[in-house]
Amino acid sequence: MRIRIVDAFTDRPFAGNPAGVVLLDTGAFPEDDRLQRIAAEVNLSETAFAHPLPEGAEADWALRWFTPVTEARMCGHATLATAHVLGTTGAATGTVRFATLSGVLSATAGDSGMITLDFPTARLTALDVAQDAAGAVVGALGAEVRSVHQAGPYIDYLVVEVADESAVHRLAPDLTALARTGPRGCAVTAAAEDPARGYDFVSRFFAPACGIGEDPVTGSAHTALAPFWSARLGRDELTGLQASARGGLVRTALRGDRTLLTGAAVTVIEGELLA
To answer: I need a surface site. Which of 36, 106, 250, 271 has the fewest CB within 10 A?
Structure first.
């Protein structure tokens, strides 16, 4: 079984978000326990498993994602990584459709090497900061919070707006406390201090309940960040910087109930799974 490590939402190695990618020759997935054990061994935010679907199916490939401890319902960077592997190995060209737990998602490779994902736009519901879930998250973050929104249905994240970009960079959340708060993940965000630097908003993402302390670049979170910031900035096309230690840029385009996420990817490791 061939396995690759791909850095997604970056055009250079050792940046962006690394994902494991396993392309299966069979028309079915192995047992869930095996998929989970492989993902735990790879020990990245997500490992993607994909197998081809027969002609006439709703999509071209079936795709699943696993964190080190659980299956994910939606994942952007590992989908980008999978599309990159399909393109660079010649297994697919142009637009590829994936059957997933979030419905049919597509990835389209451009001439420049960039890949655009077509994902469902998250619905945002404003929360009272004093509510139990929101209040617990605010306490775990230890930062001054301007607003909190619940994002769904395909993701179970909170979008937390803080005062400014420097507050995002300074965050040092209590991950143990954050893991007990309920939502699968928390995107903390603020407007860019200087849009001339090439991005419109900044974020960081934490998902300790899913075995991910801080995720380097989270495509799925941008299905919520795109409508959040488009409403505030008055533009449908934006660029987000995820300000993790590795860092990465996600170009977003809001298209009603769909959000387009664009980024590059680089394969850094390729090997054989022996077990």
So the answer is: 271
pLDDT band per the 50, 70, 90 thresholds, residue 112: confident
Q: Which long-range contacts (CB under 8 A, 24 or more apart) does 49-53 make?
A: 49/22, 49/24, 50/21, 50/22, 50/23, 50/24, 50/82, 50/86, 50/98, 51/23, 51/24, 51/25, 51/26, 51/27, 52/27, 53/27, 53/99
What pLDDT is attached to residue 235? Answer: 97
pLDDT score of 92 = 92
Catalytic positions are 46
**Do 209 and 130 share a domain, yes or no?**
yes
Q: What share of the chain is helix, strand, coil (3-state, %, to 5)?
A: 25, 40, 35
Q: Give the integer Cα–Cα distance in Å for 145 and 167.
A: 10
Same domain, 159 and 142: yes
Q: Are residues 252 and 211 in the same domain?
A: yes
Domain count, the chain: 2
Confidence at residue 250, expressed as pLDDT on a 0 to 100 scale: 98
pLDDT in tens, 228-260: 999 999 999 999 999 999 999 999 999 999 999
Q: Are residues 71 and 137 in the same domain?
A: no
Domain with 49, as residue range(s), is 2-120+261-272
H/E stretch holding 227: helix 222-233
Q: Is the pLDDT of residue 182 over 80?
A: no
Only one residue has tokens 């939502």, namely 183
Average the pLDDT over 46-71 and give the result: 97
Contact 51, 60 (CB under 8 A): no
In terms of Cα–Cα distance, which of 58, 1, 5, 77 is closest to 270? Answer: 5
Q: What is the pTM of this model?
A: 0.96
Same domain, 105 and 140: no
